Amino acid sequence: MANAAVELMAEYLGTIRDRRLYPHTSSRQIREQLDRSLPEEGTDFEQLLDAIRNPLLEFSRHNGHPRMFGYVQAPGTAIAAIADLLASTLNANLTAWRSAPAAVEMERLTIDWIKQIVGFDPNAAGLFVSGGSMANMAALAAARRAKAPPEISNEGAQSCSHALRIYASEEVHHSIVKAAALLGVGRDNVRMIGVDERYKINLDALVAAIEEDRAADYLPICVVANAGTVATGAFDPLAQISEIARRYNLWLHVDAAYGGFAALAPTTRPLFTSIAQADSVALDPHKWLYLPVDCGCILYRDPETARTTFAHEAEYTRVIGQEADEAFAFWDYGPELSRRFRALKVWMLLKGVGLQALSDAIEKDLACARYFEKLVRESDDFEMLAPVELSIFCFRHLPHQLKDIPVDENERRVREEKLDLHNERLLLALQHDGSSYLSNARLRGRFTLRGCVMNYRTTLRDMEILLDDLRRVAVGGAAIGT
Ligand SMILES: Cc1ncc(COP(=O)(O)O)c(C=O)c1O
Predict the structure, then answer these.
(1) Between these two residues, 410 and 314, which has the higher pLDDT value?
(2) Could you tell me if the CB of 201 is within 6 A of ligand 1?
(3) Is the pTM of this model over 0.85?
(4) Distance between CA 106 and CA 83 in Å, rounded?
(5) Exposed / middle / buried, residue 10 (Cβ in 10 Å: 0-12, 13-18, 19+)
(6) Which residues 6+ apart lie within 8 Å of 22 measured at CB?
(7) SS3 label, residue 477
(8) Element (H, E) at 184
(9) Cβ–Cβ < 8 Å for 255, 224
(10) Percent of the chain surpassing pLDDT 90
(11) What pLDDT does 157 receive?
(12) Dihedral angle at the C-alpha atoms of 172, 176, 181, 187, nearest 10 degrees?
């Protein structure tokens, strides 16, 4: 079975560049192709693989395609796919050291490597979780434990007479707001701070918001810094935010889910200089370490705070008669009990490929985004809508009818609305065309075409093809409305 499946993997990965990136299909068409009867009898393995070929591969968006620029999407790697197969074969359950001794040691080792990669405190604790959203939630849980009255853990949020406050720029990922809602802090208690022209948090506005809240009897607990925002890739100034966090006794959490592994690239490494001052960092190896989902990572500078947040005494988890290293349990540091062996794919990738190759691949992704920015700035039919800081590029198409900027304010507004509509249609046309894939963002109220380079297969030539594809579908009449 494995041999046949590996043949299929090789066939798939070997042809990924030539595939239509996004399928022409509908939910109904796919449902009709799946045998929907509850299987009473088993099916021949070859037939199962046939169903993987069609409809699964036939009707998938191919995330490993070199011109898949949508969202923050990693391509996956063959070595990690094999690691996932081996992890499921062993079926290790990484609850605690006693449950999976060697696997737990491999997780602890790979977490140490990740701390070194981003330049975090060597004494920090950490673990793999399902993704960046879960890492952000674990971090905010620890922040609440550290900075809010401890009764909250037992008596709930209502035991605290002050509403808690969290601060982040208005470009923060929605998982922070969702975590605040789930932790009883409340969505409205995440104060969204304005950004500067580069989409980085406005530090004066941050200080003013904290001061205002303290005067109004709120309890500020945490500030979240973005190490790469999801919309534009903006990197908040960590040194200054860390100074503000210290001044007001706030937990500093860094959401590095998108940008964290840019620490490996020489040209972006300096952005990480002050990361060691953070109390927690969320990372996503299933983004810029190119791994398949799921693999997020949370690092806590003070292991003891994390332990008091998550540890829970129960007879079925009590560790009996073991030394400290062997009494170690991941359940004391995160929300999950049963956990798959995510560390194996991280270990196999880092060990099998090595840091230099990863650093080169990330640097090349950055170069592709910068090259695209240059192409757009040199063109007269596209314009950039945000600076490129990491590998995200935000821009829009300017059809010739809308190139000139009217003097009249009302006409300018009408032009902006037409450009929004035109680019929205252009995006749909591009996705439908299937050669390149972008997603969208809204920046200062304007519709934006948005791409993110996160693929070792992507080349400078692919960036030129993306522009050609956009021009082709625009001329083809798919994006009208102007
Ligand atoms: C900045 C940032 N934070 C958090 C997340 C959430 O990560 P995940 O999708 O792994 O839950 C994302 C996802 O794109 C992100 O870009």
Answers:
(1) 410
(2) no
(3) yes
(4) 13
(5) exposed
(6) 61, 62, 431, 432, 434, 437
(7) coil
(8) none
(9) yes
(10) 91
(11) 82
(12) -20
CA dihedral 371, 372, 374, 378 (to 10 degrees): 140
Ligand 1 pocket check for 285: Cβ under 6 Å? no
With the most atoms of ligand 1 within 8 angstroms of its CB, the residue from 140, 170, 175 to mutate is 175
480 band by pLDDT with thresholds 50, 70 and 90: very low
CA distance 82 to 133: 25
54 CA to middle of ligand 1, Å? Answer: 30
Q: Ligand 1: does its nearest atom lie under 6 Å from the Cβ of 450?
A: no
The amino acid present at 35, given as its one-letter code, is D
Instruction: Render pLDDT for 74-112 as a digit per residue (tens, 0 to 9).
Output: 999 999 999 999 999 999 999 999 999 999 999 999 999
Run of H or E residues at 475: helix 460-475
Q: How far apart are CA 190 and CA 442, in angstroms?
A: 20
- What is the 402 CA–ligand 1 centroid distance (Å)? 35
Burial of 360 (0-12, 13-18, 19+ CB in 10 A): middle
State how far the Cα of 306 lies from the Cα of 332, in Å rounded to an integer: 8
Helix (H) or strand (E) holding 193: strand 190-193
Q: How does 321-342 read in b/e, with b if 16+ C-beta sit within 10 Å?
A: eeeeeeebbbbbbbebeebbbb
Over residues 255-280, the mean pLDDT reads: 98
Taking the chain, what is the end-to-end CA distance rounded to the nearest angstrom?
55
Measuring from atom 16 of ligand 1, which residue has the nearest CA?
Answer: 230
Does the CB atom of residue 251 touch ligand 1 within 6 A?
no
């695209």: which residue's tokens?
Answer: 372
pLDDT tens for 140-154 read: 999 999 999 988 888
* Ligand 1 center from residue 2 Cα (angstroms): 32
pLDDT of residue 324: 77
Across the chain, mean pLDDT equals: 95
Q: Which of 224, 225, 149 is nearest to 184 (CA)?
A: 149
Q: What tokens were used for 324? A: 């400290």
